[in-house]
Amino acid sequence: MMVPVRCFTCGNVVGEHWEEYKARVGEGEDPQAVFDDLGLERHCCRRMLVSHKDLVDIVSPYQ
Ligand SMILES: [Zn+2]
């Protein structure tokens, strides 16, 4: 499943941050700290990655 390349709300590019976000949160880092580090300050853009992770967790047991 592909993460959307751009934020639906503001058009900022978020897809390029997905792999790093996923890897660092997977290693136990605080998602908020990772977002700060990546420069994603708007809530609309953070939502794109957070909601994508949730969707993967819900869908993956059925694949
Ligand atoms: Zn945005």
Which structural category fits the helices and strands? mainly alpha
Q: What is the first-to-last residue Cα distance?
A: 11 Å
Supply the number of structural domains: 1
The overall average pLDDT, rounded, is: 87
Q: What's the gyration radius in Å?
A: 11 Å
Uncertain residue ranges: none
Number of beta-strand segments: 0
Keywords for this entry:
single chain, 63 residues, mainly alpha, 3 helices, globular, binds zinc ion
Topology:
Layout: H1 18-26, H2 31-38, H3 43-59
Bound molecules: zinc ion (ZN).
Task: Explain what the structure shows.
The chain has 63 residues and is mainly alpha-helical. The chain has one domain. The chain is 54% helix and 0% strand. The chain has three helices and no strands. The chain is globular, with a radius of gyration of 11 Å. 16% of the residues are buried. The model has no long low-confidence stretch (mean pLDDT 87).
